[in-house]
């Protein structure tokens, strides 16, 4: 804050004048905008156009304080026009807004520091994994730059002892800018979230399938044995993806080559005894939407016609029932009821 109320005397005077002080207005608006930028709030305190908008300013302050659950009853209850008339109430408002802003900034700084520490610890773990893979001694107390220098020298020594094309060329030939790295991390986060959902579904299918095997009488007596074999392998599966941006940087040209799943080199690792089992002909269970026949139309249940109608000679009944009468719409001489549906005979 760089306004006119940095001095204590000026602040006291503005609190005495209350809503008639433009400086008091500006300070409240600044505190409200800073608080809103640090937390997700619906209400806000906006700039006013002089004394004419004092009432709207009071409404905004009231809504803002209610959303923040202000503990001062004098600021959130009673007549809205009388809440900021006293100097003490104005100081309470400034005290509440300033302390809330201070607390939000402390929490924000702690969150940023926590993210940095988490990122730093993740980097340390990656460097330690590199040292373990290269057979180098690593120490958690050592700083990362000297360790990376030693790792680079070790890798150069190893590469000097192998053929030139042993590792292959990098798939990514151009360096990435900070903006590109940030975009790639967002893409990777979205993909990780999608594949985590898929993994959870597949793991749930696995659990349900194994559980269904236990329904048979033969498997019920071997429940403990099944659990002893299955659970260690099941707990080793994680729904979280381990793919990071480092995998993209480490990718080589041979990764872009598409290898058939039926090729010899691939089948060496995927072949198993179940592949040699031939399944017999199974009945077609159907279920294809294009082959489903529509349901038959609903027909009204036919009922036996009752003798006699509801009218008289020319009323609604007729000679043997129906809507017409003897001389009505159906008619005595029309055996099928005519237009109206009554008459001599009807089936």
From TrEMBL:
Signal peptide from the UniProt entry: none
Pfam families: DUF2465
Name of the gene this protein is made from: Fam98b
Family (UniProt): Belongs to the FAM98 family.
Superkingdom of this protein's organism: Eukaryota
Record protein name field: FA98B protein
GO CC entries: tRNA-splicing ligase complex
InterPro entries associated with the record: FAM98
Species name: Sylvietta virens
Region (Disordered): 283-347
Composition skew (Gly residues), residue ranges: 308-347
